[in-house]
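Throughout our pipeline, every protein is held as a single compact record rather than as scattered files. Nothing more is needed to write down the fold, since each code stands for a local backbone conformation. For reference, a complete record is included directly beneath this paragraph.
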Amino acid sequence: MSFFRTDGVAVVTGAAGGIGLAAANAFAEAGAAAVIFTDIQEDKVKANAEESKSFASNSDYKTAAYYMDVTDPKSVDDVIARVVTEFGRIDYLVNSAGVDTERYVPVPENDMEDYDRVMAVNTKGILITSRAVIKVMEKQEPRTFTKRNGTIRGLGRGVIVNVTSVLSFAAQPGKVAYITSKHAAIGMTKSLAMDVASKGIRVNAICPGWVNTPMHHTELQKIPQIIEFIKRAVPIGRVAEPEEIGENVVALCSPAGTYINGAPIIIDAGLTLTVNL
């Protein structure tokens, strides 16, 4: 069950699993007219899109799944053009595709190819995908929402949510590529928000702490002691579930979020209140 309502058409990158999948599913539960699942893992997004039909709350719900490489402008442009042809518009974009540093090593040992790979997905990928979608959003008619007292609130032409991290504001040893990419993603979020606000498009970022995702499981294999650190450092003593993050993505896109723009929203159960990451 969703705590927020959204109709409209949502495109989600990185929707093969983790936060991207949770966000896509949350849109389906919240009443979206259509949710488009995208990822480089095509088989997984096709299965996820098909499963979303079983719990979507909109009786006219539609879905699709496409292979899309956020580092490749042609791949992105082709998919976005296909979405517009099939669904008519794009109301929400969630940039959730992301990768971690391959090896946690000191800066002198950092692999520059790995650095380029991480930056290409986590930062440049946001720009490539946002650029393509903004071109669509700025041409479409703005939407409105009728409040319970009968007054009308403007929803604008679209909303973009970038999935970043609490490490957009902190650092850890051995992760220079990942941390640099997430810091840059906040700057990009703010810059995009300033550029497109006058066109009726809002851009925000969510910044989760540890989340129960495949990326987190891989991190645990590299640094097993993180399990005990989380128990001590996170005030509620656990990691987030992906659904807890996905619901907040929908909240930013819903009528409840119409006055939130250019904001990095930290979702970490209080981890960063006192802890030096």
Observations:
- The mean pLDDT is 94.
- The longest helix spans residues 112-137.
- The chain has one domain: 9-274.
